[in-house]
Design goal:
There is one protein chain. By secondary structure, the protein is α+β, with helices and mostly antiparallel strands. Among the domains are: 63 residues, Helix hairpin bin (Helix Hairpins, Orthogonal Bundle); 242 residues, DNA ligase/mRNA capping enzyme (D-amino Acid Aminotransferase, Chain A, domain 1, 2-Layer Sandwich); 87 residues, 5' to 3' exonuclease, C-terminal subdomain (DNA polymerase, domain 1, Orthogonal Bundle), CATH 1.10.150.20; 67 residues, BRCT domain (Rossmann fold). The chain has 26 helices and 24 strands. The chain starts with 11 loop residues before the first helix and ends with a helix.
């Protein structure tokens, strides 16, 4: 992928913008794949982009976005089906594309566990089937319900449909209280061909690939249609268990097989990472003979005890990784270049393409990133694409190795039209005509108008009403655009939503027969708005659409301050970069100076802060409630780890503390409750002594948490 700007060449600002771009693009892909059963890219391509996102986050952890793809699983469950909350979260997998990624994975596992290089570490390896994840719950051997993965926390109830799949047992030869079996619903190639042939003969929808066919078949409202489809199910994992299946992954899979589930016969137990990696070539050789689609192979630490110690990141287990197969390329003509203005004012050029099939998906757009990318340069002035610029009417090679909107890997200069001229990037905002600027070291050109720019204002409003923000029924992106342009029902900023009815009691009458609203739907909209006047603190922060302050950062901030009433005065004092409030803010684990400066900028005295405070005046912003813990000894406490821990890695210690409800900070202050110090602790331990903060060594820490 020679046209990617190498991660080591990214400046701070370029890294921030790239993470923003990746988050937005992968959101669209997740919804298309998991929510709409109509992917706009292959799994391999999607995972490659997630890998790039993760690598940037590892190098620039201070810029990790809360709405990063590494913080998300699947998509929100469809409103068509009733919802089921998973008793144990359903995670996705981190991805690898090169052998070096697998060696890095093995090293990270060993580092987390404090394993020396000579200590044995076995892996289970299995094909990664390209289908739809499904969770099946059994109680005393009786099938209870089935749920899709959804967003990992909540899925869609597809019980009746799952009962129609012959591979799914209705009763198990066990009296185990709770057994939640997880696996993949898929369709074999021969059955897919027959299905599409029959669909065509009946004039019905033709499916693009077996994965789409399987997902669409499982999510039918009429379970009799699902019963007619040749769906299969393979079990490879589990969720909630009242008793363990086995002591290791390989043995547990055999137990599932003994209970009557079909499992993958190609699953292998490998003694080390080298042996596991060797299976990649073996699976590549037999891939076409399997009779079903796989998009890679999965490596899992075999010991279930080690899996438990390794635990999970926000969306992926630390003990597993997927090794993905490569992507595909196609040539097509670039018809036009459009420049879009995003929520943060970034001008993003997009190539409009003559539609072309890439990796089994028809695409008509490709990202062009920024001005330098179009010109054939990276951020340091070095060449990409051998220095070839991109022009309208060029023939370009398109690939989908990780972008929702694919990328251009090459330009065919032999087919370039005579008289062709280089593309001229806009000198003013294409939406509002305001000045555009490019800060030093930044690859992105931005409109300076802020919420005075209609495009930015609309995008902020769309974000405000999105599902993970206020999620107001009947008020989505389409309605926002209509109301923004309608002077009679004007919504120009979030507070206008909550004054819509108060501003004019006749607004209900005005809305009827406009924009597709009838009396009932108009009344429902006003009722839905009223129901959203109470909102959780973290969700409110996320809804504001502040640059770098996404879902995860919002939760970190809410967990730190606990209430809006504490947040506001503290953030005002933190405007002084020499204040203790500023240093406390920067010290929050997972929040760096870039996030803090963006946050403070939004809350400076001015139009944006006025807009936020006006909005808050219409709402009841609920205090943050820390998770309930059986042992709440550490719940709500602020911890600092310093020095070298010998019994566990710093990462494992932090993970354990957070699982017990604690907050982990990077610096010691008067608000610190406990410091855990290993050998080599320096200034932090001295600072703790000065402040009288309680200090524990590693043995005392382990005793405290019962390890």
């Amino acid at each position: 992928m020679t046209d990617y700007i190498a991660i080591e060449d990214l400046s701070d600002d370029m890294a921030k913008d790239e993470l923003t771009r990746l988050a937005n693009l992968l959101d669209e892909a997740n919804q298309a794949y998991h929510g709409d059963d109509s992917p706009i890219m292959t799994d391999a391509e999607f995972d490659f982009l997630k890998k790039r996102n993760l690598e940037i986050e590892l190098k620039f952890p201070q810029y990790k976005k809360p709405n990063s793809p590494t913080e998300k699983i699947g998509s929100l469950p469809s409103e068509t089906f009733s919802k089921i909350k998973h008793s144990k979260k359903m995670f996705s997998l981190a991805n690898a594309f090169e052998n070096s990624d697998l060696y890095d994975f093995d090293e990270q596992v060993r580092r987390f566990l404090n394993f020396k290089g000579s200590e044995p570490l076995e892996y289970t390896v299995e094909p990664k089937i390209d289908g739809l994840s499904l969770s099946l719950r059994y109680e005393k051997g009786q099938f209870v319900f089935a749920a899709t993965r959804g967003d990992g926390t909540t899925g869609e109830c597809v019980t009746a449909n799952a009962l129609a799949i012959s591979d799914i047992p209705k009763n198990l030869p066990t009296q185990t209280e709770i057994l939640e079996v997880r696996g993949e619903v898929y369709m074999e190639h021969k059955d897919f061909e027959i299905l599409n042939k029959n669909q065509g003969a009946l004039g019905k929808k033709i499916f693009a690939n077996p994965r789409n066919a399987a997902a669409g078949s499982l999510r039918q409202l009429d379970a009799t249609i699902t019963a007619e489809r040749p769906l299969k199910f393979l079990a490879y994992a589990w969720g909630e268990l009242s008793e363990p299946l086995d002591t290791n992954q390989f043995g547990a899979i055999q137990k599932l097989k003994n209970l009557g589930f079909k499992t993958n016969s190609h699953t292998k137990l490998c003694k080390n990472i080298d042996e596991a990696i060797s299976q990649y070539d073996e699976f590549s050789k037999i891939r076409s003979e399997l009779g079903y689609d796989i998009d890679g192979i999965v490596y899992k630490v075999d010991s279930l005890d080690l899996q438990s110690r390794l635990g999970y990141r926000s969306t992926t287990p630390r003990w597993a990784i997927a090794h993905k197969f490569p992507a595909e390329y196609s040539w097509t003509k670039l018809l036009a270049i459009d420049v879009q203005v995003g929520r943060t004012g970034a001008l993003s050029p997009v190539a409009r393409l003559n539609p072309v099939t890439v990796g089994g998906v028809v695409v008509s757009n490709a990202t062009l990133h920024n001005q330098d990318y179009i010109a054939g340069r990276d951020n340091s002035g070095g060449e990409i694409r051998s220095g070839k610029d991109i022009r309208i009417n060029d023939w370009v090679e398109v690939y989908r190795a990780g972008d929702v909107i694919p990328k251009i890997s090459d330009v065919d200069l032999t087919r370039r039209l005579k008289g062709s001229t280089a593309y001229c990037f806009p000198l003013v905002c294409p939406e509002c005509g305001s000045k555009v600027v490019r800060d030093e070291g930044d690859a992105v050109i931005r409109c300076v108008a802020g919420i005075n720019c209609p495009a930015q204002a609309i995008e902020k409003l769309k974000h405000f009403v999105s599902r993970k923000a206020f999620d107001i029924d009947g008020l989505g992106g389409k309605q926002i655009e209509l109301f923004f342009a309608d002077e009679a029902l004007s919504i120009k900023e979030p507070a206008d939503i909550f004054t819509l009815k108060l501003r004019d009691q006749n607004n209900l009458t005005k809305l009827i027969d406009r924009h597709g609203f009838g009396r009932k739907s108009a009344s429902n909209l006003f009722d839905a708005i009223e129901k959203k006047r109470s909102i959780e603190f973290s969700r409110f922060l996320f809804s504001l659409g502040i640059r770098h302050v996404g879902e995860n950062v919002s939760k970190l901030l809410a967990r730190h301050f606990l209430s809006w009433s504490r947040f506001i005065p503290s953030i005002s004092l933190a405007q002084n970069r020499e204040s203790q409030e500023y240093f406390d803010l920067v010290a929050i684990d997972g929040i760096g100076t870039t996030v803090v400066n963006s946050l403070l900028s939004a809350f400076e005295i001015g139009k944006e802060r006025d807009s936020i405070e006006k909005l808050a005046g219409h709402l009841d912003i609920l205090d943050e409630i820390l998770p309930d813990r059986e042992d709440n000894l550490l719940s709500g406490k602020t911890l600092v780890f310093t020095g070298t821990l010998e019994q566990m890695s710093r990462s494992e210690a932090k993970s354990l503390a957070e699982n017990l409800g604690a907050k982990v900070s990077g610096s010691v202050s008067a608000k610190t409750d406990l410091v855990v110090a290993g050998p080599g602790a320096g200034s932090k331990i001295r600072r703790a002594e000065e402040l009288g903060v309680k200090t524990l060594d590693e043995a005392e820490w382990l005793s405290l948490i019962g390890k």
